[in-house]
Amino acid sequence: MAKSKSHERTPKAKNKHLNHNHQRKETESSRMNVMNTLLTVTCMAVAAWFGYKGYLETRVNTPFDTEKLVTLSGLDTADRYWGSYRSNLYFGMKTRDPQSLVSGLMWYRPNDLRQGSQSFRHWCEQSDKLEKYGWLEHDGKTFGIQEIVDGDLIIKTSYVKKPGGRHGGDWTARIGVTFKDSELSQAEKSEEISFIFYSALEDKSTGNIKASLGADNRLSGMEGYTDGLGAYRFSMNPTKGTVEEHSFLIAVMPGLDLVRETVLQNLRVASQKGSNMKRIVLGGDQLPPNAEGKKTDPNFCATQVTAKVPFEFEVLFESGSVPLRKEKLTGKNFDSALSDQRKRFHDKFEKTFKLEEKGFKEDAIDFAKLAFSNLIGSIGYFYGTAQVQSVHTKNPVPYWKTPLYSAVPSRSFFPRGFLWDEGFHGLLISTWDLDIELDIMSHWYDLMNSEGWIPREMILGSEALKKVPEEFVTQISTNANPPTFFLTLEYILNTREVELLDRHYKLLGKIYPRLQAWFEWFNTTQVGDLPGTYRWRGRDGLTNKELNPKTLTSGLDDYPRASHPNVDERHVDLRCWIAFAAGVMARLAVLLEQPSQRYNETYRYLTDNQMLNELHWSTDAQMYADYGLHTDKVELRRSFAAPRPPTSPDLIRVVLADPTLRFVDSTFGYVSLFPFILGIVESDSPNLDKILNDLTKTELLWTKYGLRSLAKSSPYYMKYNTEYDPPYWRGPIWINLNYLTLRALNHYSQVQGPYQAKAKKIYQDLRENVIKNMMAQYKRTGFVWENYGDVYGEGRGSHPFNGWSSLVVMIMAEIY
What we know:
Layout: H1 2-59, E1 82-83, E2 92-95, E3 101-108, H2 110-114, E4 132-138, E5 143-150, E6 153-162, E7 170-179, E8 192-201, E9 207-213, E10 219-226, E11 230-240, E12 243-251, H3 259-265, E13 267-271, E14 278-282, E15 284-285, E16 300-308, E17 311-319, H4 331-353, H5 362-376, E18 380-384, E19 387-389, E20 397-398, E21 402-406, E22 417-418, H6 419-432, H7 434-445, E23 457-458, H8 462-466, E24 474-476, H9 485-495, H10 497-525, H11 572-591, H12 597-607, H13 609-616, E25 617-618, E26 623-624, E27 627-630, E28 634-639, E29 650-655, E30 660-663, H14 674-677, H15 686-695, E31 702-703, E32 706-707, H16 735-748, H17 756-781, E33 787-788, E34 795-796, H18 808-813
Parallel strand pairs: 12-15, 19-24
Antiparallel strand pairs: 1-2, 2-3, 3-8, 4-5, 5-6, 6-7, 7-17, 8-16, 9-10, 10-11, 11-17, 12-16, 13-14, 18-21, 19-20, 22-23, 25-26, 27-30, 28-29, 31-32, 33-34
């Protein structure tokens, strides 16, 4: 029995051992499964994280996901296909095509060049110190007349377009030069001038260009083919005077930013046939051989004529798609076509702005035509890739390739597109031609990325890039710019609503989703920490170089804000911009039969005067103001701690008193006016009375030339922001903000309230001061300027500046 029992226990023990092994294996297997599951989940999480991170990284340069507003084919707007779209040149023509054929003009005085003088003209440069230049008349579509005063010479460029064919038609340019002083002696009139006219293909263009040589080996024309133009031909013919020397250049140009260098490298000194006289000529055929030993295909062709002043020649561009021509657009035909276009321009100008009807004299009307023509004649067409960066990208990344049709602030200094400038430009352009303005607006809204952000500055193409300091090239996707296109839209709704709805309702419907995204981007990314507050991003809170950290994103660059940027800051101008935009969005929503309640609620919330006053009205200073961590006790001092020569130590900011959270109310200026200039202050508010009284105080903003940007009583008035940054928005008079102030004064003079008469009187006086000074400075200097001095009214900053300073035309016409 015992044996039997013992025998019976053995299988049980064995089974128990086997079960234990099985359980252990199951446990290990389970553990492995868990580990594998965890590993899988971890891998999936890591993959998801990197995928999401990649998604975040690409959002900055991913286009907004809706139908494009603009096609790449400029031929869809044939009347605007060709134009003076090379704003940075004294004279240049191009098409609205991504890979355009371009043309341009250069000139120099051979005697000056021989003596080493920098008299070579091509790009508009302030360093050329020309007495004046600019469009006298330009309609934005069909013709332009320009006058350039270079020393004792007057150079006139004019062009006229003629429609026809499938590729934008023909055009002719006439270039002539005379002496400024007609009383010069014959000996003094022996001055020679050399003109160089060229055509070139943009970078990576598909097409060709070649020279047509006559029997005497002289260039008789240029011809070629591009996808956008089809076949084309240039011919150049003297019409007055005698050509002393004629030469040409056929070459490979590295890029449009190197045209000048290409020409200068290929100038030669040669003996004139039958004479010992030396002349400067172009180098002829300069095509290098390719890998197969054949000549490289050229992308640049230029012809030079040297002649005694006076001299005139015509350049005729002919499209190969135009049917048989009965007559060419030259000589008397050109005269007749130009005369017709000028008459249409004059008639339309008076019908639009009614300056004769208002009693302006001829010189004032000519000034207004020039101011307007230089804005619309400086519209450029750009194509290329911008450089952007977001908080999710370690380094700058390229934006998508895109076109931009846009006016520019200044041909010499800012020949590229600026977002907040363009909203002001649009007020004048839409008054003249709604089609052009909606075209411009469509191009800008096509720049919107997937987050609803639009870069505040667009630097497209090698020519534009060459003009921009490296520090300003990259556009940061957290940074805004005032949404001034809402100004343009409101103005169009007020003045052209019937036309907008009749002819452009479909386009407006396509723009609307982008406007929604843009508004939403502002109303989420630029909010402050408290409800109803907003804060411009992009200020440098760590700098020790700036007296007051710049707020480039506000458009008012060095205008003083809180001295120590932080999250507690709230900016009154940005709040007003968002309120204004909400009101425009509500109007558009109703017109397009879209839900408007959210925009109406936002508008009512942000325009509530009680809340506005709680957040931004300083009871101590009796003014609207920013709020933030601030002290006025800052100054720039030399630092001798740095290892630099003692004669040139750095200027650094020294803080002499601790900042506190407070209103920035020691500074009265343009920012203080925003609740007024955007019409948010109620017409019966005592705050409005205080603002109107402050406007007229000479110790604050009032001058006999316009409103200065910063009160003389401000501790920052006319102070340098760094050792090298002179005051910009710290005293000078800016025409765009004077226009907005006049617009507000006009508004409050017409709405019911106790201060109507006071607003009307200030309006009349301010309008007269601005017009009178700008005309006086134009007569004195030949230019419209970026801003004006507040002591003597002199033109300051870049020139010519026919961006928002051209709003003087609207001020003269009293169009708001």
